[in-house]
């Protein structure tokens, strides 16, 4: 399959999944919202989705190779840890997806802990509301830095190309899902969060309270937070009563307008911001 995966096919798969999940979650948010929004949706959606467009164009211009291309090269040249084993392809694919998800979890923790990286990542946390578009709201420089880290992880791991495609699609889809402003039965949430990060689980991570912000880092799988001690089941103020965002960034002119979003990392690196 590695030899038949073209760049255009990869892009089509990812774009199709992005559009599908965006539409489904937007409809769900409309039918059964979890919280009342505080900022006009047209403003936030225009800014957040415009940022996605900028990021997509910049990544294509700046990054010379795709993640799948690196995976194909690694496999053909026998690079990476998985080249040391000879397990069935399906097992290596599952293992690669799990390891790459762990790498993203660790990257997320580091981006909270290191002030220079927090400058970039706070763009994601400055959103005053949380909905499906928050899951793709990242500063362009963070997207580029994350891409470099991801390419290095893929080269070091040597996963099958199909594993990289699955991981990329899952990461994008689950990020939009678990940032969505959707309501589901509490009993279902308790079961589902054993397998995947749910909206109620991840919403805690966007609390204005720092000890809650520094928890529930997972995007795809919920296991890393539980295993590594960063899991927090519920926000102290409850999901309807909690405040989303950062303590000193409460003006939508600074947090929800595209020029201000792009400038935000250069306003200072204080972790409190």
Report on the architecture of this protein.
The protein has 273 residues and is mostly helical. The protein has one domain (2-267). Helices cover 59% and strands 0% of the residues. The chain contains 13 helices and no strands. It has helices at residues 7-31, 41-62, 67-76, 89-113, 115-125, 140-157, 161-178, 186-192, 199-203, 210-213, 223-227, 252-255, 258-263. The longest helix has 25 residues, at 7-31. The chain is globular, with a radius of gyration of 18 Å. The mean pLDDT is 93.
The 3D shape can be described as globular
Oligomeric category: single chain
The residue-averaged pLDDT reads 93
Look at the helices and sheets and give the structural class: mainly alpha
Order of helical and strand elements? HHHHHHHHHHHHH
Q: How many β strands by DSSP?
A: 0
Q: Which stretches are low in confidence, meaning pLDDT under 50 for 5 or more residues running?
A: none
Topology:
Blueprint: H1 7-31, H2 41-62, H3 67-76, H4 89-113, H5 115-125, H6 140-157, H7 161-178, H8 186-192, H9 199-203, H10 210-213, H11 223-227, H12 252-255, H13 258-263
In short:
By secondary structure, the chain is mostly helical. The chain has one domain (2-267).
Keywords, separated by commas or semicolons:
273 residues, 59% helix
